[in-house]
Amino acid sequence: MIMKNMTTMSGFLLLGFSDIRELKILHALLFLMMYLLALAGNLIIITITTLDHRLQSPMYYFLKHLSLLDLTFISVTVPQSINNSLMDDGYISRGQCILQVFFFTSLASTEVAILTVMSYCRYVAICFPLHYETIMYPRKCKWAALAVWLSGSISGILYTTITLFITFCRVKIIHQFFCDIPQLIKLSCSNDYLGVVGVNIFMAMMGLICFTSIVLSYSHIFSTVLRIPSAEGRSKAFSTCLPHLFVVSLFISTGVFDFLKPTSDSPSAFDVVISIFYSVMPPTFNPIIYSLRNEAIKGAFRKLLLGEFTMQKTFFSCC
């Protein structure tokens, strides 16, 4: 349903996947399934990495932060989209849209930062195993986690500040299931979007630094792993690193592509699909990917199901 006089209204109309009622319901059901899967998976990761004394190393400490981040990240956009589809009303107020911009950009930037820290953590664990606890000591992990969350907040503040000063001249219809920055740029007047472009360039530079750090970390990791004489040792190392590398590649590549590709006046279903790859899929499948070949997490999950957890002193105090 297209609302009248959208140019004079303060809010926006989100047009996600289709105008057909049946397809909207299908979209809502699929998103609901993915949202519930994301909630369950990430809550399980947070629970077992908190309760199991064997999962108190820096690697699981950052994994717990990633799960908390993913839980929040997917909650910014998906519930609103489900509600809009079921109610057959895509209207979102300007205030809600600005809040989505803040939380979405903040959490997306935080995700890039924490994935970078996790790659460094794996680099230290594999390349310097004897010095792992010395390098990744609890206080350092605390400061790293704090820096990750603060860096994301700075990104959100920058995007939100610039968005507040955009004057929207065109019909306020966003061909997306949430308030996406590239879609908002399409609706801006004359040179109003230049501030957003400037922030995009700055964040792209920060993202490039993170991506370069990740590439360097994994270059050293794979170089070290290939020198391991034991086939079992190589397999264990690869099973730990490859899922993380897959998550990093999917999230960063699709996110950068969506934000930096030239904007088009004609709506495209491809834009919506691409956004799902970095906004919905990572929070949903991260718990599965990180748990699939991790025997410690699977063992802790079995203990959780059987109610065998007991309160035990943790060995990694920053957890």
- List unreliable stretches of 5+ residues: 311-319
- CATH architecture title: Up-down Bundle
Task: Output the helix-strand order.
Answer: EHHEHHHEHHHHHH
Q: Between the first and last Cα atoms, what is the distance in angstroms?
A: 49 Å
Structural class: mainly alpha
CATH topology: Rhopdopsin 7-helix transmembrane proteins
Extended strand count = 3
Mean pLDDT: 82
Global geometry: globular
How would you characterize the largest beta sheet? 3 strands, mixed
The helix fraction, in percent, is over 70%
GO molecular function: G protein-coupled receptor activity; olfactory receptor activity
Pfam families: 7tm_4
Keywords: Cell membrane, G-protein coupled receptor, Membrane, Olfaction, Receptor, Sensory transduction, Transducer, Transmembrane, Transmembrane helix
Domain G-protein coupled receptors family 1 profile: 41-290
